[in-house]
Amino acid sequence: MSQRSNDPASILRAINDAVLAMAAELRVEPILQRLVESARSLAGARYAALGIPDGEGGFERFITTGMSEELMEAIGPLPRTHGLLGAMLSETPRRAAAGPAPYRTRDIRNDPRFEWWPAAHPVMTSFLGVPIVSKGTVIAAFYLTCKRDADEFTEDDLSIIEMLAAHAAIAIENARLFERSRELSVVEERNRLARDLHDSVSQTLFSISLVADAAATLTERDPAQAKAQLEGLRDMARAAVQEMRALIFELRPAELGADGLAPTLRKHVEVLGRVYRTPIELRDNGYRRLAPHVEREVYMVAQEAVSNALKHSQASKIEVDLGLADGVATLVVADDGTGFDPADTKIRATRLGITSMEERAQAIGGTLRIHSGPRGTRVELEVPLG
Length: 386
Known about the structure:
The chain is α+β, with helices and mostly antiparallel strands. It has helices spanning 8-23, 28-43, 69-75, 84-87, 155-218, 223-251, 256-259, 261-276, 292-312, 345-350, 354-363, and strands spanning 45-53, 59-65, 103-105, 127-134, 137-147, 280-285, 318-325, 328-335, 367-373, 376-384.
């Protein structure tokens, strides 16, 4: 990685580029790696690391740059605590809500908190440590060693890394919030599938059990009635198999990242159409790839809307339209089945997941509208882009 220019405008551009790159990423791990690489470049360091505290005096994660994979393997696993590195995460704040003070030295080995290195560890001299603080709590710290072409890191280096640390705190917290929201979405989807399993398949299986008992008692006394019961039993078993296939398919992760929204959704509706024996037509009207988080939410809204139509509307056909025009992406799911009242609070709370679809639309700056009546239901999602 090249050493930075000392020109202030170049430094600001480099920090701006790093911040913009972080803003485009929503996952924690890639952001941490980009942060440590940016810090190394901006400070002109040979080695750099970023440590995440585990709350017990050690590191939950320790991300490095500047060392080869072979060298990292030779060094071996990191020790549980890290002397000066660990102290950077917990020492007395220099001022209220500021966190521990940064630390700069010509030779880290002369610091009384320095402990030891594994045998394969490179010898390091100059050192710069800067905590990353959010709301008065240290959430990470930069560690930079071996200033290139100089004996020590400068005050300018310290100011630059402190500036990067301020942006890093925001980027890390935002990425963590996004990952937590995704985890909550997964829990929400599993809860919905559990409710579907209880509401449909488990009840069908219970009915199968009752009908089987009735048929057994009629076998000798009324064979004709027993045969009728067994035929009904066969139909219920087939329905249970269809429901199970649909639920299992929904549990499979969508391949949005590799295939994109349109192909993934097409595959999804084709399977559901076969399972439920209901024609589902997908039309792609000039649609193109969007940001991954936008495609994911649009897909989940489409999945919910199609599932509702299949399970509750008794529709003879379902139409799904994806579109993109005038900077607005659109999704329409329409059926010709029995409608409902979208304002009914009981329906919103228990059956159709309307609130979930609305929240997904809001998360990507979109608008969800639902029109329903005796001639069917139409779910419309519009997402302005840019």
